[in-house]
């Protein structure tokens, strides 16, 4: 299984995910329940979105495939992409960013709904989220484990160039900004069938001044021959670990948990530099004292 880790660069400015026009409209009730138990979603409307659970910020799957929408834990949800999603890669330089030969048939979760394929988007429409976040949230791809690549992009309806949001083949930070009360769908392209574990972080500044962040791992079973049970069995614990956030789906605030590896490395480097400076200073003082003693005991009394 190939492993692609997307490194986080804290200085990168998130891209802004434009809203295709016309955007799909929906509203989310504050009392929509959180369902429990494993489920496989293979068709219908699904969103990723931040929500508070028992007062704790997290990222959940909003399942709108039934008449009564519910929220679900990513740990208990497999997004199955059937062979009804197979499409040939366009023979067009505009899609070179996919890194896939033109004409190859790949699994595509389309931006425009295909009734036979799970339809995956994201939203920032939970009422408590809308009341507490300051302007919007950031979705960040942290890593992908799978047999191929994953690319997520938007395509507007006016023949504009594709707007690439996430590329698992790109070893750099890939955050994008989502305004409050946004509901958007995109194209998700999987280059090979198989099980994919996709680690996503959602973070936001609250109007209270607090910062919140959560990291969860999404499970995909791509292709008819891929068993959803294999996706459930795949170990997210073996996934990419980044900035102190384990890919196991544990939620924490940015100031909680263990220090980020980069911070630890910088701190360790600072300690070593400080220690080296102390040694240099002590050696310099010792040499100065020895020189003064030699001058005081010399016949000339240290005078030239």
Describe the structure.
With 304 residues, this protein is of the alpha+beta class. The protein is built from 3 helices and 18 strands. The strands form 3 sheets. Strands 1, 2, 3, 7, 11, 14, 17 and 18 form an 8-stranded mixed beta sheet that branches. Strands 6-5-4-10-15 form a 5-stranded mixed beta sheet, with no helix packed on it. A 5-stranded antiparallel beta sheet has the order 8-9-16-12-13, with no helix packed on it. The longest helix is centred in the last third of the chain and has 37 residues, at 261-297.
Which tags fit this structure?
alpha+beta, disordered N terminus, 3 helices, globular, 16% helix, 304 residues, 35% strand
